[in-house]
Amino acid sequence: MSVRRVSPTRIPNRYHIYLLGLTVLLLGFFTRVAADSVGGRVFILGDSYSDTGNRETIRQANNEPEFDRHQFYYKHRSSNGPNWIDHLYGEESVSAALMEKPRQQATTNIHVFNYAVAGAASGDYALFPSAKHVILPVDFTPWGVMRQRSELASHWSDIGEDDQLVVYVGFNDLALAVESQSIPTWLKYFLNWFTPIALEPIDAMVAHTVDNIMDTVRWARDAGFGRVVVIGLAEGGTAPMHQSNPSAYGDAVRQFNSLLASRIQAIRSKGSNEIVFVDTAAQLTSHLSLLSGSNRGSIPVACLVQGKVCRNPDQHFFWDASHPTTGGHRVIAEILRQPLQVHSINRP
Q: Is the pLDDT of residue 14 over 70?
C-alpha cells in the first residue's frame, strides 16, 4: 500500500488558492477603509447643520416635549434626509457622542464622533427657540461649542496627531446680533443683565464669535489634534429667514469669514498642527449643479413652509427657513470633501 507523502514545507495547491483569496479579501477591506477617509478619528463641534442626534438626547434627558413638526425631519437632523456628515462618512460611521463616551470597537466602523448640538453658539451656550419669551424668543442652555469641547475632553485622553477636529459654528451668534438690532438700546442694556450671550452690535458680535472660535482652535492645538478644520459660513443673506434683512446677514457673514480666515492664517505659522479654513461661501455657487435643476435665484426658497412640503425638494437648497435639504447638505459635503480628506461622497 502506497502512502502519499507531503513535504512539510509544501502546501497543496488548493490551500494556495484559499490563502490567495483570503489575502485579496483582507487587502480589499483595508484598502477600502483607507480610501474612505484619511487619518484617524474625526471629532466635530458645531450647531444644527452638523447635529446628528445630540439635541434629541438632551431633550429626552430633560423630559422635554417633542419638537414642533418633528415628523418632517430625518432621524433628529435639521433636514429632510442625511446631512453633510452622513454624506461624507456614512451614518454607520458616525456616533452622536455628546452625553456619553461612545464605545469604539475594532468590530465597528465608527470613527466620527459628533458633539454638535442644534442651536449652539461659539461660546458656552446654545440658543433654543422658546415661545415663553416675547422680546427675545429663545432659551439659553449650556451646550455651546466650548461646552461641547469640555465634554469631548472628558471622554478622550488619547487625542493624537492622527486625529482631526472639525469646527462648524457661528450662524447662531450672528443671527442673534442681526435679529436683536430692532430692540431699543436701553432695552438691550436691561436684557444683558439676564442673557449669558450679550446682545451686541453686529461688528462686535462678529469679533466676539471669531475670538471664541480661535480659542477653540488654540485648545485643539494644545489638546494634541494633528489637524483642525474650521468651516466658514455660506448662507449669509441667502437663507429664507434672512430675507427680512438680507444685507445685514450678508455683511455679517462676509465680515465673519474674512476675519476668521485672516486670524487662522496668522496662527498657522505658530504651531506644528495643520489648521485649515474652508471658505464655503466662495464655492457654493459653483457646486449648485449637484441640485436637480437648481439656480442661484432658487436658494432663498424653503421647501417646508408652515407644515406643507414642496413637490420638488431635490431642487431646493433649503428645507426650512434656515436649514438645508439633504441635497443642500450634499453640496456642502462636496465642498468639504477635499479639505476633510474624504475620497468620495457616500450615497445613503
A: no
* Residue 144 exposed, middle or buried by CB count within 10 Å (0-12, 13-18, 19+): buried
Say how many domains are in the chain: 2
The C-alpha angle with vertex 93 and arms to 294 and 292, in degrees rounded to 5, equals 10
4 falls within a domain: no
For residues 264 and 312, membership in a common domain is answered with yes
Looking at the structure, tell me whether residues 150 and 24 fall in a common domain: no
In which residue are the cell numbers 485648545 written? 219
Strands 42-46 and 112-114: parallel
Can you tell me which residue has the cell 483569496? 21
Q: 18 lies in which domain range?
A: 9-38
Q: Tell me the pLDDT tens digit for each residue of 201-210.
A: 999 999 999 9
**Residues paired with residue 324 on neighbouring β-strands, in sequence order:** 318
Give the pLDDT band of residue 133 (cuts 50, 70, 90).
Answer: low
| Cβ neighbours of residue 157 closer than 8 Å, sequence gap 6 or more | none
- In whole angstroms, what is the distance from residue 265 CA to residue 292 CA? 36
Q: How many residues does the chain have?
A: 348
The answer on 321 and 300 residing in a single domain is yes
Taking phi over 0 as left and psi of -120 to 50 as alpha, with beta for the rest, 275 belongs to beta
Is the domain of 156 the same as that of 290?
Answer: yes
The model's pTM is 0.84
CB atoms within 10 A of CB 287: 17
Is 13 found in the same domain as 132? Answer: no
**Same domain assignment for residues 229 and 107:** yes
- How far apart CA 148 and CA 115 sit, in angstroms, is 6
Paired with 168 in beta bridges are: 46
Measured CA to CA, the distance from residue 95 to residue 114 in angstroms comes to 6
Q: Where are the alpha helices (DSSP H) in 192-231?
A: 202-223
Return the closest-CA partner of residue 59 out of 46, 50, 70, 43.
70
Grid coordinates given for 270: 505658530
Same domain assignment for residues 223 and 333: yes
